[in-house]
Input
Amino acid sequence: MELGDSTLSRLTEWFEQSVAAVEADFEQSTVTAEFPGRIATLQGLRGAVTAVPTIEQLETLWLELLRSMIADAEVNRFAAPVVSGDGSVQTREVWRVGPFMAAAGPNLLRWNAAMGQLEESPWQPRGKNRRMLEAFAASSVAEAINVPVDTMSGRLLEVMAKRPTIVQRVEQGRSTGYLILALGGIGIAVGLYRIGVQLRVARRVRSQLRKVEQPAKDNPLGRVILAATGKTDGGTKDNAEQLQSKLDEAICREVPQLEKGCKVLKLLAAVSPMLGLLGTIIGLIATFQGMGAFGGVDPAVMASGIAQALVTTLLGLVVAVPLLFMHAFLSAGAGAMVQTLEERSAGLLASSLSKVPAQHDPGVD
Output
């Protein structure tokens, strides 16, 4: 079978395109750090083709592709120059997981295609992930070890490196975010203080319930009992109406002390999300004004501006949630103690009435 000039021309064009595509893939692959000579091999193939690719050239391309597929499925260790964070270059032992990722000890590396070398990633794992990398670096290739893998060939590491920290997130909220955090700090301080006071008062009330006959002034129940056992100005014992008035007055004095701080927490919990929404609206206005001033819509810039604007809403919700829990806890505790005071006052009133002797009407025989 004879091949025409057009067929041979298409074969040559296909071979050159295939070599160029494979070379581009190799340049971006982490495997090239272990086999740097394969780029030169492909460049030699691309420059050697003058007319029709030879059998040897086709076979060389096929072998390089076969070696690449085998290397992509390997977990291997090799020595290679690595650029450290301070810019120095040192030959270090590198372990590679296919084309996905590489590391030197517990430090993750990324392949710099422009420089043709490995360098330490600006983002390094912490906590559990770092311990897993340390265990993997100390293990042998034959061992089965769990290890985090960047399946996006380093792109995920770049995204994580650009992810702002908590401090940077707060700074994106600007003055509104700082105001929300200040209000949240005040609310949490008030809430924690009032919770401590309420727990101490509740403990004293429970102790007073076990010693009703010995009322003390260091708890609300004791003060109510002392008010009920008082005398009138004339030294006579109080009647039922006077006793009821004294009990009501004593309870009314205790309720504000028990509920102190609840209204402040409720107000701050309601204001924080509103301030967050205000900050978000201000941020969106600034974002759209900037886009209108420069003319044109860049999705990346727009997404970044909207993300920064939403930070204040996030801060508002983060502040509001614990304040609501504190308010609910304090309200429930205050309500329980007020109910205890009312129950005991009713018991004192009933006990006082039962001790009043029945009066005889002299007109009735």
